[in-house]
Design goal:
This protein has helices at about 10-20, 30-40, 55-65, 90-115, 135-155, 175-180, 195-205, 215-225, 230-250; strands spanning about 1-5, 25, 45, 70-75, 120-125, 160-170, 210-215. It is of the alpha/beta class and about 260 residues long. It has one domain (about 1-250): NAD(P)-binding Rossmann-like Domain (Rossmann fold), CATH 3.40.50.720. The radius of gyration is 18 Å and the shape is globular.
Length: about 260
């Protein structure tokens, strides 16, 4: 099962899994894009549209899906801005989609995986799940939370045959923020592709890696150092993100986006 399969990263993940022989359950809200992807894959794929912010929709998704051997929790809402710029409804929706939905899906699907003695959960976090960036307090909260959940779940499932991998994409070209706004990454800030995220998903499943960073070397080092010197790394991030903030402000990329 690939959630958020209508987005750029979700499509890349689905294509890669399909090439590796997987039978896919594609879920998201954009039925038209999901059906296009299903038609492209031609076989071993079905579409179950669902709103992951709705617990009843999640329950229906699980019931219609049947047996799931691998869950790739990729769906997420992005957004930037000061916390007071978000309404309580927007805050709730981001928490629901980015954090609660993966937890509820794991809760529903993992017990059967454990019973079968095989399975894998892949959680798509973000570089913002390791480093606190300016104007991303709400988004960071969900992605830091997803990392904590994944690492603890992995410990809970040790020796059961069920693995857990958390993938941390950095800035991704052709998907997410850049695709939705037309904003280009600031000069000197390297990006990665949706296909590289998909490759990380495959590696995580096949090799049962606990965490995989899909980011340039400096960004990976920053994630490791943040826990040791958060104030220093935050200052560095502020300087590096200034151009991005200005570009996003011009594009009015605020609030919540799929």
């Amino acid at each position: 099962m690939v959630t958020g399969a209508s987005g750029g990263i979700g499509r890349a993940i689905a294509r890669s899994l399909h090439r590796h022989g997987a039978h896919l359950i594609l879920t998201g809200q954009n039925t038209e894009l999901l059906e296009q992807l299903r038609s492209e894959l031609a076989d071993r794929a079905q579409v179950i549209a669902a709103d992951l912010s709705d617990p009843d929709e999640l329950e229906r998704l699980v019931e219609e899906a049947g047996q799931v051997d691998v869950l790739v929790a990729n769906a997420g809402l992005g957004g930037n801005g000061p916390i007071e710029g978000f309404s309580p409804e927007q805050i709730g929706r981001m928490l629901d989609v980015n954090l609660q939905a993966p937890i509820l899906l794991a809760r529903a699907l993992v017990p059967a995986m454990v019973e079968r003695g095989t399975g894998h959960v892949v959680l798509i976090s973000s570089g913002a799940g390791k480093i606190a960036l300016p104007l991303t307090s709400l988004y960071c909260a969900t992605k830091f939370g997803l990392r904590g959940f994944g690492l603890a779940l992995r410990e809970d499932l040790r020796a059961t045959g069920v693995g857990v991998t958390i993938v941390f994409p950095g800035m991704i070209s052709g998907a997410g923020m850049f695709a939705e706004t037309g904003v280009e990454a600031p000069r000197g800030v390297p990006t990665r592709s949706p296909e590289q995220v998909a490759e990380a998903v495959i590696i995580g499943i096949e090799k049962d890696k606990p965490e995989i960073d899909v980011a340039p070397l400096l960004a990976r080092l920053g994630g490791r150092l943040f826990g040791l010197a958060p104030s220093l790394l935050a200052a560095v991030s502020r300087r590096r993100m200034k151009a991005m903030e200005e570009a996003l402000a011009k594009s009015r990329y605020g609030g919540l986006t799929r």
